[in-house]
Amino acid sequence: MDRRAFLRLGAAIPATLGATGIAPAFAATSTPAATATPDAFPATAGWRVYELTTDIQLPAASAPATVWVPMTAGQLGDYQRTVSNEWLAPGGRVRPVRTGRYGVDMLVIDWPNATHGAPLTGRLTNTVALRDRDVDLGAAPARGAGAESPAALREYLRPTALMPTDGIVRQTALAITAGMTDDMTKAQAIYQWVVDHTCRDASVRGCGTGDVVTMLKTGGVMNGKCADINGLFVALARAAGVPARDAYGVRVDDSQLGFRALGKSGDISKAQHCRAEFYAAGYGWIPADPGDVRKVALEETPGGLPMTDGKVRAARAMLFGAWEGNWVAYNHGHDVRLPGSSAAPVPFLMYPQGRTVAGTLDSLAPAAFGYRITSRRVA
Questions:
Q1: Is the dihedral of CA 180, 181, 185, 188 positive or negative?
Q2: What percent of the chain is modeled with pLDDT above 70?
Q3: Which of the following CATH numbers is that of domain 134-324: 3.10.620.30, 3.30.2350.10, 2.40.50.100, 3.40.50.20?
Q4: Considering the chain, what is the average pLDDT of its residues?
Q5: In a 3-state reduction of DSSP, which class is residue 69?
Q6: Contact predicate 276/214, CB 8 Å
Q7: 205 Cβ contact partners less than 8 Å away, ≥ 6 residues apart
Q8: Distance between CA atoms of 71 and 107, rounded to whole angstroms?
Q9: Confidence band (pLDDT; 50, 70, 90) for 111?
């Protein structure tokens, strides 16, 4: 077992996190060449390869119809590679699209006409190689390590529609980081503050909205899901001058670290999860996931666990600087405009979106929408 992982997780969690390090990623790069195969990502190097399949089936009477399906990021650091993308949509027009300043990849499927009484069907299959991340925060920063471009860092300091960096957000960030001068110390203080002042709310639909101003204005305990809790971390970090970003994706496998609440395999139609990262010179992009700390507290065992429980404390320590490779990122996008749609941009894209002759489909209700996402590990 890696010593840093052991110190983070404690003996109560039978797990290993590989010390994979970090590499910068602004927008996802192009999908690797078609010659890439799962064999290029051996388990001996910490890789696990998964096949994600998104199936769409709409009634024939839905046409004209369009769906927008998020695609996995082609390459992120040295912990995610998309090996291949394949799609099929009989009777439909299909095109992969990258849109916006964040480089959000999606598959757009249009059915302009009914298909002679047959359902409108489409399938996207992403094959992705993943591995664990673990940044050694105890090591001295290394000059040039994980260096990111100034343009990217400026981008990840900007506000978004639901994550402003002025007003109550800036006031809160400055209060949390008063007297602190380096980004690592600020980010750690914000992480601990978010864990202490938020609470996962099982009644919130999907992953939440990411409306951080509304959260802060509630005072006291601020409820939400991962897009709310981790979005709050990102907004506060940016307001404090620390580059930060959400990573929107989906869980693809059960946890190998002993956390029942932090994994999902098989049918992952409702397993979407966003994570967060912040940037520190000499380290690069560093994982942070206060939302999953609160998920462990609420969902690890029936009835929940107190924040003083050993498993919650282990998650709290691990999830500042590490994350498990049983989750895949789609993108870092915010305020995503769907190509060909006249509707307002969506705050983020990690669920399929759709519009039919009857109107907009409910992206948070897979069965009613007509989509199913499955995951299987490729041997």
A1: positive
A2: 90
A3: 3.10.620.30
A4: 90
A5: strand
A6: no
A7: 364
A8: 7
A9: very high
